[in-house]
Amino acid sequence: MGREAVAGAFADIRAALAVLNAEVDGCGSEPFSAVDPLAGLADGSLDILAGAAAVEAGVAGLKARAAMKYAGTAHALAPPGMPVQAQEMAVAAEIGCVLAIGPRAASAFLAVSHALTSTLPLTLAALQAGTISWQHARGMADEAATLDAAGAAALEAHFLDPDTPRPAGAATIGEMPAYRFRHKARTWRERHHPESLEKRHTKAVADRRVEYSPDQDGMAWLSAYLPAHQAMAGWNRLNALARGMQGPHEARTLTQLRADHFASAILTSGTSTSSGDGAETGTDLTPSSRIRAQVLVTVPVLALMGVTDEPAMLDGYGPIPASMARDLVANGADAFHRVLVDPRDGAPLEIGRTSYRVTKAMRNWLRLRDGTCPFPGCSNPSLDNEADHLLAWHHGGTTGISNLGQPCPKHHKLRHTTGWTPTPATTNQPPGWTSPTGRHYKSEHQDWEPPHWPQPVLSAMPAHLKPRERRNGQEHQPKPYPPMPAEPGGHADYLYIPRSPGEESLHRFLYGGS
């Protein structure tokens, strides 16, 4: 059939689009709901949105396959002796003209299409099935670009293989925005890259820089490529300074205040100098005080001790080199909290107490559990978020981790002023959300992984304390967490709560004493 079949298929697609557009306009042959046409139209419009997203993904997969098929045939038809680079330029130029995109965008599209059709079969299949978007597929290809074939296969299997164990309530990668999936994929890549994060970070530090880019309306962008802990510390300090300035007499928004403090910090120390008669003579150009790391860092205990170079987790960023985490501890980072993680599955152990007041320890645990605001797709970092009782205290709700969320101010307001409601949480799973239409949306889960145990440590460890074995290709699932214990008087850096006599023995094995 050839061209006639292609033309007929696209004619059918255009006819289907005409039908769907009529349905959106409420001009279909039948209403979505005869009982309540307006509510039915609203619900039907969401169905059309969801269906359109799946079709868009399928079309994106088709475009990738068609582009690579054209590239393959173009190379086969190229004159003998034509340089490979010239062939690639010619292919990119043709693809760019057909899709009406620039040469750089065409080359990027071809690079992703090649990765999908050659090394990422699960990603391409998910894209064609409409369960992930093109943005998700591009994120997978970008993170797999520096991995060998085995590493790329392991990366996509971790996220897309249906046999990979994952929490029942966890959102799949297609149920979260692509930029949130990129964060997860980057975290996995940093942990499993064949070259250690320490070595890669050492190389990357040499590329630190500040960049300037003009923009419209007399504005410009000034950005810096910095080590993660410095960038996060600066961002958190700007947030703290901006929040401290807010009040009934401050007209500037939080975003404007952050920008103003940033400009003040890089231009001056923020203070002015004056002459004796009160007239300003200039600004003090001496460096401002050293920015301290206002962050939460989770470090595997053996990495903290220098036994391994396992990555630590920087709150709001992701994996960082163990040496960076050790430096934060050694230099007295203001908000560093030691968190003992379960040596078997990598999840932190619970802290907290039972009372209406949410303690600092419980807030830290919420930060560990959720990472960001638990509303689907929100990446507001945990330092900006507010502890919230899922079931209100005056309705019988308790102050326990399973009844607490930490939505950002925007989604906290959404919960209390609209029909959006959070669904139950657990000690290690954040709450999901139900919309006014009754649709349920899952929250993103943290990707805890078992710490690495060096062979000398494993050899000296009692058999019943060693990390659990894998059976039938899967690790045993962790036992449910115990109820929230009461916090003893006073606040410590961390509170260790053994789940069993064996776990208590492990704590003594690592730390000595009781």
Q: Can you put this structure into words, describing what you see?
A:
- The chain is built from 17 helices and 14 strands.
- It has helices at 3-24, 37-77, 84-99, 103-118, 121-129, 134-144, 149-160, 178-192, 197-205, 228-245, 254-267, 301-304, 322-330, 360-370, 409-417, 455-460, 501-511; strands spanning 209-214, 220-225, 272-274, 280-283, 297-298, 312-314, 318-320, 388-389, 404-405, 421-422, 433-434, 440-441, 470-471, 474-475.
- It has a three-stranded antiparallel sheet with strand order 5-6-7. Strands 10-11-12 form a three-stranded antiparallel sheet, with no helix packed on it. Strands 1-2 form a two-stranded antiparallel ribbon.
- The radius of gyration is 27 Å and the shape is globular.
- The termini are far apart.
- Mean pLDDT is 77; it is low at 270-294, 349-356 and 469-514.
Largest sheet: 3 strands, antiparallel
Q: How many β-strand stretches?
A: 14
Q: What sort of overall outline do the alpha carbons produce when their principal axes are compared?
A: globular
Based on secondary structure, the structural category is mainly alpha
Helix content: 40-55%
Note the total helix count.
17
Give the low-confidence spans.
270-294, 349-356, 469-514
Distance between the termini: 79 Å
What's the arrangement of strands in the largest beta sheet?
Answer: 5-6-7
What's the rounded overall pLDDT mean?
77
How many whole angstroms does the radius of gyration measure? 27 Å
Sheet-strand content, in percent, reads: 5-15%
